[in-house]
């Protein structure tokens, strides 16, 4: 590997780590905004994020980036769907954090990689080996255990994992640059989010006219940056770091969320819940280990 390639890889690793750490610490940020209704937080997140991503794309690609996407009706329609999915995911996540379910939100993002595998089998006709099926089975057993012991499945975790998994599936099926795709999704969501934000402001449920002070106003604007920056950083990193490495690094975020839920927010985590989580973590360990082993196997040339 050349010195330039090594430097690119190091920068990619640092940016990827920063993005996942930022995602993992996000519950602390949303907790600061708990006085603002969750829908209003999501509306501000979309509006300010759209403005920031739009400015970035205008600077990097000029004014033609959106026209190029809209000229492809199938891609434009799929990005509208992915925009709805990510908006739902954001809204549920913010509500769950401020309602005291940080541990369960972390479970959703632990489940997500394995759910992605299942979606790949169901929609992309991908095939799993026995080890991968065993990993899925362990995670399913953990979810079933939690549902049995608590009388209902961990619906927040499952809804977060499913919405983000379907979002990833849609984005995989549409061949659009990651940041440009986010920009198109933001365009679709911008006007409904702006209308919701203005409605909230006019009814005393927003941030700027809600009487909570300039600090919360500033945090609402920063929420847009905290939406855009990790996604842009992630898009930067995946072009410079092997996908297998990025796949392992993604567990940084739910691990930090879980630790925050237990140690900072003091959410309950008894032995019954620990057993269910342990099954899911075991499935993830098997899945990640198998993927890492396959990525390091020497490629046998075809004869």
From TrEMBL:
<feature type="transmembrane region" description="Helical">
    <location>
        <begin position="219"/>
        <end position="238"/>
    </location>
</feature>
<feature type="transmembrane region" description="Helical">
    <location>
        <begin position="154"/>
        <end position="170"/>
    </location>
</feature>
<protein>
    <submittedName>
        <fullName>Chloramphenicol-sensitive protein RarD</fullName>
    </submittedName>
</protein>
<feature type="transmembrane region" description="Helical">
    <location>
        <begin position="107"/>
        <end position="124"/>
    </location>
</feature>
<dbReference type="InterPro" id="IPR004626">
    <property type="entry name" value="RarD"/>
</dbReference>
<feature type="transmembrane region" description="Helical">
    <location>
        <begin position="182"/>
        <end position="199"/>
    </location>
</feature>
<feature type="domain" description="EamA">
    <location>
        <begin position="156"/>
        <end position="287"/>
    </location>
</feature>
<dbReference type="InterPro" id="IPR000620">
    <property type="entry name" value="EamA_dom"/>
</dbReference>
<keyword id="KW-1133">Transmembrane helix</keyword>
<feature type="transmembrane region" description="Helical">
    <location>
        <begin position="39"/>
        <end position="59"/>
    </location>
</feature>
<feature type="transmembrane region" description="Helical">
    <location>
        <begin position="75"/>
        <end position="95"/>
    </location>
</feature>
<dbReference type="Pfam" id="PF00892">
    <property type="entry name" value="EamA"/>
</dbReference>
<feature type="transmembrane region" description="Helical">
    <location>
        <begin position="245"/>
        <end position="265"/>
    </location>
</feature>
<feature type="domain" description="EamA">
    <location>
        <begin position="11"/>
        <end position="146"/>
    </location>
</feature>
<keyword id="KW-0472">Membrane</keyword>
<keyword id="KW-0812">Transmembrane</keyword>
<feature type="transmembrane region" description="Helical">
    <location>
        <begin position="12"/>
        <end position="33"/>
    </location>
</feature>
<feature type="transmembrane region" description="Helical">
    <location>
        <begin position="271"/>
        <end position="293"/>
    </location>
</feature>
<dbReference type="GO" id="GO:0005886">
    <property type="term" value="C:plasma membrane"/>
</dbReference>
<comment type="similarity">
    <text>Belongs to the EamA transporter family.</text>
</comment>
<dbReference type="InterPro" id="IPR037185">
    <property type="entry name" value="EmrE-like"/>
</dbReference>
<keyword id="KW-1003">Cell membrane</keyword>
<keyword id="KW-0813">Transport</keyword>
<feature type="transmembrane region" description="Helical">
    <location>
        <begin position="131"/>
        <end position="148"/>
    </location>
</feature>
């Amino acid at each position: 590997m050349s010195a330039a390639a090594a430097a690119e890889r190091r920068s990619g690793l640092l940016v990827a780590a920063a993005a996942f750490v930022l995602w993992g610490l996000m519950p602390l940020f949303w907790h600061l905004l708990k006085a603002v209704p969750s829908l209003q937080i999501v509306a501000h997140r979309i509006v300010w994020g759209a403005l920031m991503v739009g400015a970035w794309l205008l600077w990097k690609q000029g004014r033609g980036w959106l026209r190029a996407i809209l000229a492809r009706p199938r891609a434009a329609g799929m990005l509208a769907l992915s925009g709805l999915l990510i908006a739902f995911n954001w809204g549920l996540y913010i509500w769950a954090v401020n309602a005291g379910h940080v541990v369960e939100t972390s479970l959703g993002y632990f489940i997500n990689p394995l759910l992605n595998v299942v979606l790949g089998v169901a929609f992309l006709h991908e095939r799993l080996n026995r080890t991968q099926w065993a990993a899925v089975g362990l995670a399913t057993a953990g979810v079933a255990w939690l549902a049995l012991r608590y009388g209902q499945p961990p619906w927040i975790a499952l809804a977060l994992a499913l919405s983000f998994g379907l979002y990833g599936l849609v984005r995989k099926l549409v061949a659009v640059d990651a940041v440009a795709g986010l920009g198109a999704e933001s365009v679709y969501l911008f006007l409904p989010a702006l209308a919701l934000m203005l409605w909230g402001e006019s009814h005393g449920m927003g941030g700027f006219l809600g009487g909570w002070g300039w600090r919360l106003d500033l945090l609402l604007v920063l929420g847009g940056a905290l939406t855009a920056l990790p996604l842009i950083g992630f898009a930067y990193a995946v072009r410079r770091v092997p996908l297998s490495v990025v796949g392992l690094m993604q567990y940084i975020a739910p691990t930090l969320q879980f630790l925050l839920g237990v140690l900072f927010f003091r959410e309950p985590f008894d032995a019954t819940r620990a057993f269910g989580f342990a099954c899911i973590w075991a499935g993830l360990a098997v899945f990640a280990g198998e993927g890492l082993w396959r990525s390091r196997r020497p490629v046998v040339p075809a004869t």
